[in-house]
Design goal:
Elements lengths: L1 H15 L5 E4 L5 E6 L5 E5 L4 E5 L2 E5 L6 E6 L5 E5 L3 E4 L5 E5 L4 E6 L5 E6 L3 E6 L6 E4 L5 E6 L5 E6 L3 E6 L7 E5 L4 E7 L2 E6 L4 E5 L5 E4 L7 E7 L4 E6 L3 E6 L4 E7 L6 E6 L5 E6 L3 E6 L25 H9 L36 H4 L7 H10 L1 H4 L13 H14 L4
Antiparallel strand pairs: 1-28, 2-3, 3-4, 4-5, 6-7, 7-8, 8-9, 10-11, 11-12, 12-13, 14-15, 15-16, 16-17, 18-19, 19-20, 20-21, 22-23, 23-24, 24-25, 26-27, 27-28
Helix pairs in contact: 2-6, 4-6
The structure holds heme C (HEC).
Length: 424
């Protein structure tokens, strides 16, 4: 018994040590956004439609979004906001609420330096400034293109927007509605960080550049052949800038000398979608295809093996599977579990699907359309669902548009589902 206690004590001691590799486990889909509160609490945004708020006792799940959560940010006073593929911007806390709605996917959210406004950007081509005190949003337009990211400048007066057609626009909140075109990059700009006189950006072609925030003149270029740049995080106190890309690397830059200090392969496979520093800048957290977010001590990055496996079942040896299973793994498994019991995936479990009325898994938050649909799932109805596509078969459902064109593929999928969803 004493030995067991000693072992437990040492496990606890290492788990609490700052210089440790950490894992945040519990989501049912990839991690698309990460944010760190001023007090050191981490929030994860996931493809499983939920937001995880992590503390030592485990995660608290914030539910409400009806599609993948794509962006998450804390404000200076600890306010938490998120944006989603369901087009909404949500404010959490004691009275969770939908702050507002875009007409396309929300790609980024941020609070103003004074904590009074939420800035959201969307593929609908607009930026919206939501006053937290209530009232209508101010709308700013990026003519003719979607917006991948938007941030406040450090003074709170300027707003920078990165567009899908490769521009960085600067809006002056006290000036005209017409933005200044600061940078023309040619490829979609994906991420922005602003600090003092500089602005750093990442792009679809693997470009990572630093420009002057007032003129757009180039200060440094760290472009690598690793595309696209998908994530950026900055730690002002230590001057570190982290850049995550589609090849799974985290490049660390020292913004005081503009040198690359580290280059770390964080995933065995797949992208780095999200990055956040711990409040002291000594650790960095990353998310990607795994359902888990990982944290590494920055000083020891080179000593760790890649943490993110990038292995999702739909990528695993798909070629060797029978066709029906392959169809499921590739097209359904990211959103649907097959086993009994609750799952944290974006869609309901398909366990016991055959003979089951639509919208009937207890505890799953269905759209009203599916909840009220008079459908019983069986060979014919599942076939029709993917022959016509959910958008035609049950218009208004939360299930994304998809068609499986081949009748043979549908038949194989249905045969596989019949066996894999069977109740004991
Ligand atoms: C990107 C996520 C996603 C993918 C991929 C996806 N689904 Fe779904 N599916 C959902 C969601 C969300 C719902 C619930 C829809 C609602 O409430 O309107 C759903 C509902 C369903 C339902 C109805 C379940 C019920 O309890 O009524 C079936 C059947 C289904 N999906 C089968 C599939 C199959 C088979 C595939 C692969 C060919 C697939 N889905 C791919 C997200 C997904």
């Amino acid at each position: 018994m004493q030995r067991l206690l000693a072992v437990l004590a040492s496990v606890c001691a290492t788990a609490l040590g700052a210089q440790e590799f950490t894992t945040l486990k519990g989501h049912g889909g990839p991690i698309m956004g990460l944010a760190m509160s001023p007090a050191g609490q981490i929030a994860t945004a996931s493809f499983d439609n939920s937001v995880g708020l992590w503390s030592e006792g485990g995660p608290i799940w914030l539910e409400g979004h009806e599609a993948a959560v794509t962006a998450v940010a804390f404000g200076p006073n600890g306010q938490l906001v998120t944006g989603s593929d369901d087009f909404t911007v949500r404010l959490w806390g004691d009275a969770p609420q939908v702050l507002g709605q875009h007409q396309g996917k929300v790609t980024s959210v941020q609070l103003s330096p004074d904590g009074q406004h939420v800035l959201s950007a969307s593929w609908d081509g607009t930026l919206r400034l939501w006053p937290l005190a209530g009232g209508a949003a101010q709308v700013l337009q990026a003519p003719g293109t979607g917006i991948n990211a938007a941030i406040f400048g450090p003074d709170g007066r300027h707003i920078f927007a990165a567009t899908m057609n490769g521009q960085i626009l600067r809006f002056d909140r006290q000036g005209s509605d017409v933005p200044l075109r600061l940078v023309t990059h040619g490829f979609g700009v994906t991420r922005l960080v602003a600090h003092g006189p500089w602005l750093a950006y990442g792009a679809v072609d693997g470009g990572t550049r630093v420009v002057r925030a007032d003129t757009g003149a180039q200060l440094a270029d760290f472009s690598l052949d690793r595309r696209p740049v998908l994530a950026m995080a900055h730690h002002a106190g230590t001057g570190q800038l982290a850049v995550g890309d589609g090849h799974g690397y985290i490049m660390m830059l020292d913004t005081r000398t503009w040198r690359i200090t580290r280059d770390f392969k964080a995933t065995r496979k797949g992208p780095v979608w999200a990055l956040a520093f711990a409040p002291d800048g000594a650790s960095i957290y990353a998310g990607g295809l795994d359902d888990v977010a990982y944290g590494w001590p920055v000083a020891l990055l080179d000593e760790f093996k890649p943490g993110i496996s990038g292995q999702r079942s739909f990528l695993r040896d798909a070629e060797t599977m029978p066709n029906g299973e392959r169809q499921f793994m590739r097209k359904c498994s990211i959103c649907h579990a097959l086993g009994p019991g609750p799952s944290r995936k974006a869609g309901p479990t398909l366990h016991g699907l055959f003979g089951r009325p639509a919208g009937s898994v207890p505890g799953y938050f269905y759209s009203p359309t599916l909840r009220n649909a008079q459908i019983v799932w069986g060979e014919d109805t599942i076939d029709a669902l993917f022959d016509m596509g959910p958008d035609h078969y049950i218009p208004g459902s939360k299930m994304p548009m998809q068609v499986i064109a081949g009748a043979g593929d549908r038949a194989d999928l249905i045969a596989y589902l019949k066996q894999a969803t069977k109740k004991e």
